[in-house]
Amino acid sequence: MFLRLADGDTPCVGKVYYKFFTLVTAFDTIPGLTAVRRTSLKLLAEQRWAFVHSDSHYSAGFCVDPEYWDSDYGQEANHEVMTGFRNSVKKSTLSSEESARVMDQWIRFRMAEGCFADEHCLVQAKILPGYKWWLAWGSMTPDLQRFAIRVLSQVACSSSCGRINNEADYIKSKKRNRMKHFTHEREIYVHHTLQVLDKLENVEYEEPVILWDADINSEENTSDEEEAAKDND
Fold first, then answer.
1. What is the structure's pLDDT at 38?
2. Which ranges form a coiled coil (predicted)?
């Protein structure tokens, strides 16, 4: 389920930190594992986390994602999270004064002051994608709003880059191997942009939203896949 969350074009940077934490703690609840096997799995997961972890992608995203707004998640008490968040704010702002404004506005966000105390605001924090929620509710904290949208609108991995490489292979084929780099680059841009426009101009288009707690192995999903396979046949 964690791979399904991270591998895609849907922005989910704010979800990764907490989901990875729940993944590691879940090893304690898996039945049938020996203590040695459980320890080795945790070690592999922690090594992978140390390899992929970055301030802007995960610590900062965890701090500003409205889904984890509740004080029960305790971001302000986690030294690693807060250090990464502060470092990300410093990198993203032009001056120490702007950094101070972002941190001050983040405190107002965490303490649910002003419009953040609205009941609809709390409900939509669990429904809307993070960057869209900040577009709708972040006007009271403009500096933090800009920072949060910049962070939460990013994807979590480079899968989309791999798809673009496939498009590049499709355009510059063996029959067109003398194409210049500039022409190749522009054709990729046009090809990819036309695909995006086709989706956006479709009146029934909806941006894909991952159901974070969805079980991809559930009977419902399995039956849907079987029905789709029958239709294709």
1. 81
2. none
Shared domain for 142 and 182, answered yes or no, is no
- Considering the domain architecture, whether residues 142 and 170 belong to the same structural domain is answered as no
Regions of the chain with pLDDT less than 70: 1-9, 51-56, 156-165, 203-233
The residue type of 119 is: E
Q: Any residues with CB less than 8 A from the CB of 172 and at least 6 apart, and which?
A: 179, 184
**Count of domains in the chain?**
2
- Residue 67 and residue 59: Cα distance in Å, rounded? 14
Q: How far is CA 149 from the centre of its chain?
A: 11
Whole-model pTM over 0.85: no
What residues make up the domain containing 101?
A: 2-152
Chain-centroid distance of CA 119 in Å reads 25
User: Which amino acid does the sequence have at 215?
Assistant: D
